[in-house]
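Exercise 3.2. Students should predict the tertiary structure of the chain below and write it as structure tokens, then compare their answer with the key that follows.

Predict this chain's 3D structure.
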Amino acid sequence: MYRGLILTAVAAVALSASKAAADVPLKGFFIAHEACPALQSIKKETNPGDVRTEPGKSYPIIAKNKSAASHYLIEVEGADPSRRWVAIRCGEHVVSGGGGGGGSGNQAAYVLSVSWQPAFCEGKPKKPECQTETPDRFDATHFTLHGLWPQPMSNIYCDVSSDLRLADKNNEWDRLPEPNLSDATREKLSEVMPGTQSKLERHEWIKHGTCFPADSADEYFSRAIALIEQLNGSKARDLFAANVGAEISGKAIRDAFDESFGDGAGDRVRIACQRDGKRNLIVELTIGLVGEIGDQPQLSELIAASEPTDPGCPGGIVDAVGRQ
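Answer key:
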């Protein structure tokens, strides 16, 4: 009997050790972009206490579930148990200053976040910009602007009243003030940010733009537009446009960034994917930037000055317009 108990205990320890060995340790923080379930078990999808991540909040990160990760293990204060798994699409891994990024650059001062709109729309089909998308519209074959985010991700809502913060957090973007933009900036923004149909620019200005060192919303958005125009004139955009409906690897994306923006540029890019049935779709790229983003910003210089980051998703499908 005792021998059987010992063998059972040994087997349990071995199983636990095997599971732990599969996890890949990480340093730094997880910055939540969405309110997502914080799971005790990925496989069983258990969530004691119905815990969810809070957009904009930073959580200590412990590990990812495997090299080609689908989830991060984070520490959620007040949760029981406190260690929880959250899908990588729900935020980003940020390494704090001096945190072993492996490069000679600096911790990102900004993050340029760009979307592949058809993939985004697979998960948000009721959004106005998704209901109106067509195969010949700009966002069918170009990156679109999600946002330009001052870092760290806790640097949000600068001098913004509590009622506007609450409206933004509740996704009541129609209650937010419309940014004061020139006709030229607004026209260009409506092209590179189709989410303006959902008033995304109001959200981005209130949450992130108010913390950007510019004198006006027009300066903030015009500089973000300048950056994404350079990205859309690059080999990275050409790679995506030439492979709509096909799968591309993270290495191919990083190589395209290196070719356009200099050696090592691809190491500053994190790829975010989302599952759509049996398909794994590339939905967003986040790019670390360091330096002054002035009236004529140079994307290659801003990328080169930043630190390497977690590569994120190892690759996926470049989605085409329309529900698949």
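Discussion points: Residues 5-21, 96-105 have pLDDT under 50 and may be disordered. Residues 275 and 281 are 6 Å apart (CA to CA).
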